[in-house]
From TrEMBL:
Name of the protein described by the UniProt record: Class I SAM-dependent methyltransferase
Keyword Cell inner membrane: no
GO biological process, one term: methylation
Keywords: Methyltransferase, Transferase
Molecular function as annotated in GO: methyltransferase activity
Species annotation: Microbulbifer variabilis
Amino acid sequence: MTLSCPLCRHRAAQFYYRDKFRSYYQCNNCELVFVPAEYHLTPVEEHAYYNLHENSMEDEGYRRFLSRCAKPLLKELSVTSVGLDFGCGPAPLLARILEEQGHKVELFDCYYFPERRVQEKSYDFIVATEVVEHLSAPGDELSALWARLRVGGVLALMTKLVISRERFASWHYIRDPTHISFFCVETFQWLSRKLGAELHFADSDVIFLKKSGIDPE
C-alpha cells in the first residue's frame, strides 16, 4: 500500500502498527503517524462521539489542564491581543481563561461554533488544544491557520506526542477512534522549518510556533 502523508504529502509512508481496530502508518519524511482514511469516522459518527465528552466551563480539573497551555501563552501576549480558539468544542473554557486576562478570543469549531468568517480574519494568537490529532488533513488546516496569524503571533498547539513504537502499542491516546494524526518532536521540527516558525515546547505536550516573518526553507 502506498499512502500519501496527510501533513507533508510525501508518498513514502511505511507500516507502523496495527491493533484490532485499525492500522497506522508513519511518514518517512515528516514522521507523522497517521490512520488511513478507510478507518476514519463519518462526520455524523465523529460528532456523536464528541457529544459523549463531559468537559464543562465550571470544571476545575479541565481548567487546570488547559492552564498548562494558557499560562505560558499569556507570557507571550501583549496587552489586549486578539486570538482564535480553533476547535474549541462545546465548552470553550480556554477562551474564557484568556479573556479573564484581558484578551479577546473568537471561537471556531466545525460542529459547535461553525462561523466560517472568523477564519478569514488575522489574529495575534491562535490556540488549538487537543485538536490536531483529530485532523484528516493537518497540512491544509495548519497552513490555513498559519496564514491567519500576524507576524510575531503564536500558534499554540496541545497534543500528546509519539515517543516510540513500543510505547505506541499500549498508548491510551490511540484508543480514541477520532484520533487519526499523531505528532512527534521530529514532526514539529519539520513543520517549523516548513512554516519558517520559531519552535518552542512550553510543556511535554504544549507546542508554540511563533511567526517570525522569516521566509520558510
